[in-house]
Fold:
Amino acid sequence: MLPLFLLFSCSNPALQEEYEARKAAALSAPGEVPKGWEAEGALRMCGPAMEQMLGTAIARESKAAKPMDVKGMGTIKPVLELKSFKLIEPACKECVGTKGRLEGNAEVKVAGIKTKIPFKANFEMDLRFSSEQRGERRHIVLTPQEVRKLKVKFEGAAPMNLSGVVEKYGAQVLAQIDPVDLGDLGGPELHLRDARVVGDGGCMRIELLTDAPEPAAVGKWPKAPEEGWQAVVSEEALLAIARREAFAMGDVADGMGIYAEPTSLDVDGDAFTLGLRVWRLGGPDWWRDYTLKGSLAVTGQELVLAADEVIEGPKSEGAGVADPLALVGEAYLMRILQDSAQGALPAADSFSMGSSQWSVVTEDARGVGDSLVISGKIQIGKSKKAR
Structure:
């Protein structure tokens, strides 16, 4: 049987107007993308992760490339291996600048001579960033651009001046590296209005602008990951997205006129505090505030939040007593936050780079400053069939 306070009472027009005003604000469109917008989240990848991917791609392209003709006298087939790598300032807008050192052997067959000559080469090149809206998601791709610099130095005596030939070969190999297809970001719970790439102290930061109705920028960026990847979402943006989803959901208690509104969010380490207002509309009309406390963790490569404490707060006149976890459902509230946070990550658990498949592994989640930070590693998986 339902409690009497849920059966007998009158509606309150003023309270209903307050609810509708808060709902309209939460669901309002943010307008046009402003110039010079501040990031509300980001996906970050630093040198080691990029080195791992590009090193695999360079080795594969070098192995697949055909020997080059040397002035009609024979052939040369350099075999390249990436030895060092770092991210630098790019030469073009919306690019990621890269700098590295290659080592290898030039397999030379010239004028009856068959030998291998070791060499080293320094290079600079840019990867152009592009994003394309696909429904409710943005597709992210990094495409190699023209090599800016490539200088080869042989470690031993060569039968002729082969530096120019190897430099041309190396430039072709680097330029032919397949695009890094990072897949989709965003989704039904995290609409992205725009994305861009910026340098970030030796890291690549793909900055995200959500469709939160009001600006919700990251205040201070957490420490960059030493390896792997990192996703950052400001608590303010995450709260705005959760409020929108909660209001869009409507009645959450099987026609009882119960509505949920997340009002505040603080994530500190592996703990979170969520402010919640429970509305009862349609007679009797009231609201009551609660504070939910709980923990967050990564389980099965997914972010999981669980509330374990409820604290009662202020209430409207005539408000009944209700357990928010019973009326609204802990799973309902936590799923909204979990899905919103997951929207800052690649939609798939893998992405492709040429014939190689890379796995995106989620390992940790915690609150840092005013942001939720999710991190993990990137590891090479099974390769597709060669082209």
In short: Helices lie at 13-27, 47-64, 163-175, 235-249, 324-342.
